[in-house]
Amino acid sequence: MTRAELSAQILQKQSYLCVGLDADIDRLPRHLLDKEDPVFEFNKAIIDATKDLCVAYKPNLAFYEALGSKGWESLRKTLEYIPDEHFTIADAKRGDIGNTSRLYAQAFFGEMGFDAVTVAPYMGVDSVKPFLEFEGKWVILLALTSNKGSQDFQFDQQENGQPLYEKVMRKAQEWGTPGNLMYVVGATHPEKFKEIREIAPDHFLLVPGVGAQGGDLEALTRHGANADVGLLVNSSRGIIFAGEGEDFAEKARSAAQALQTSMAALLQNL
Amino acid sequence: MTRAELSAQILQKQSYLCVGLDADIDRLPRHLLDKEDPVFEFNKAIIDATKDLCVAYKPNLAFYEALGSKGWESLRKTLEYIPDEHFTIADAKRGDIGNTSRLYAQAFFGEMGFDAVTVAPYMGVDSVKPFLEFEGKWVILLALTSNKGSQDFQFDQQENGQPLYEKVMRKAQEWGTPGNLMYVVGATHPEKFKEIREIAPDHFLLVPGVGAQGGDLEALTRHGANADVGLLVNSSRGIIFAGEGEDFAEKARSAAQALQTSMAALLQNL
What we know:
The structure is a homodimer of 270-residue chains. In chain A, helix 5 runs parallel beside helix 6. Chain A has 12 helices and 8 strands. The first copy, chain A, has one domain (3-268): Aldolase class I (TIM Barrel), CATH 3.20.20.70. Chain A has helices at 3-13, 38-50, 62-65, 68-81, 98-111, 125-132, 150-153, 164-172, 193-199, 214-224, 237-240, 248-268, and strands at 17-20, 56-58, 87-94, 116-119, 138-144, 181-185, 205-207, 231-235. In chain A, helix 5 links the parallel strand 3 and strand 4. The interface between A and B is large, with 55 and 55 residues.
C-alpha cells in the first residue's frame, strides 16, 4: 500500500486507528473454544465489528507462533479475511543478518501478503534493508518503545549527546524514505513526540500503548500529527478483550468506536 | 540443560561446535525435494552425520517460518529427532514487551523444548527477563553480532565511553547469571574477545561467523575460552551445504570433522 492510499483511507474514515489482533488463546471467549479454529473465528468477528472504524490491523506474531503450525494457519486465514483497503502489519520485531532478513521479508511480504513488518534495529543496516527492497511494502522500525525496558538502552546518550533512539531514527533515514519507513514510538512517552517530529517530520509513526484514555491520545496527536496525519495509533487488548462473553464483538466495536470518535474530533482541530 | 552438563559434553566430545540447521529450501539437494518433508529429511541426515562431532544444534527460525505451517511442522519433528544430550538453540532473535516475550518463551521452551533462545536487547529488561524465568533454560543475548550492520549501533560510544555492546552485556548481568545467560559475539571481531572476557569472564559465548578457516577459530579460542571453555562456535552453511549432491551428509560430516579436529587440538593447549 502506498503512503497516499493510506492517507486517503485515514481521511475518509476519519480514523488513524490500528487494531492489534493479539488473539491470546487463553483470553478468547469460552464459547469459541469448541470451534475448529477459535483464533480465526475470533479475529473474523473482531474484523467484521471494527473494519469501518480502523485503517490497519496488526497481529503480533507471538500469539500465532505460540500455537505452532495451527497458529500459522489461523494467521494465514486472518490475513486473507482482512479487507484489501486495510493496512496490515506483521508485528514480528525481526532483525537478522542480511540473507536471513531477506527470507523473513519474503515470508511476510511475499507469501503472507502483509503491507508492513516491525523490525528491530540492533543489528543495523543489513538486517533492515532487505525489508525495504519490496515495492509498496514498509518497514516499521523500533525507535522508542512503549514498555518499561525502553529505559534501559533507548535513552542512552551517545557521544554527541543524542539518545540511542534518535541515532536509530536518523541512521535509518539513510536507508528508507517516508514512503517505505515508519517508526514505532510508544504512547507512554507523550512528551517526546514534539522532538521526534523534529527528527522525522514526514514519516508515519506507529504508536502502541494507548488505552481507552483520551488524554494520551490527545497529547500525542497534538504533538505527533503532521500534514498527512502521519500516525497509526494501535490498541490491542483495550479493543479485542473489551468484552469476554458472547457479545465480545459488540464490546470491541464500542471500544473502537470510542477511539475513532476521539480521533475524528482531533482531526478536525489539526 | 545445566552449565555443568554442557561443559561435560564439550570435554567428552572435545568439541564446542554448534551446527546451524538453516535448511534453506532453495539450497537442499535436489533428490530430497520429492520427499514428503524435504526439510526434515535433510536435517535428519545432517544430525545423523554430525551428532558425535558437535554439542549443539541451532535452527534459525526464519528458514522454517518462510515455509508457513509446514515449516513449523518440520521444525517440531527436527527438535524431536535431536538427541537429548545436545544443547538446542532457537535462533529467533525475539524481544517484545513483557507479556509477549513470555508467550515466545512458552512457545520455544515449553511446547518446542528448546534449551535456549537468541534474544535481541533493544527493548530492555521486560523483553529479556521472561525468558530467564524458565528453570534450566537459557537466553543468548545479541551483544556484538557478526554482520556488517554490527557497525551501525553496537560500537557507538555511550557517555561513559563504553560501546553499546558493552552496556548491553553489563546491564544483562543484572538480569541473568552465567547459569542462564550467554552472549552472541561474532567471530568477525576476533580482536574483541579479550576485552569481552573482561566484561563477562564466566558467561558462555555463542560465536557465529566462523568459516572452515582455522585461523579465526584459533584466535577466538585463544582469547575467548575460559576455564569451562565457555564457547559455542557455530557453523551453518559451511557444514550443511558443504556438498550439494546425494553425498551431502558425508560432505557435511567432513566439514564438521575438520572443525572438531581443530577444536580438539585447541582444547589441548588451553
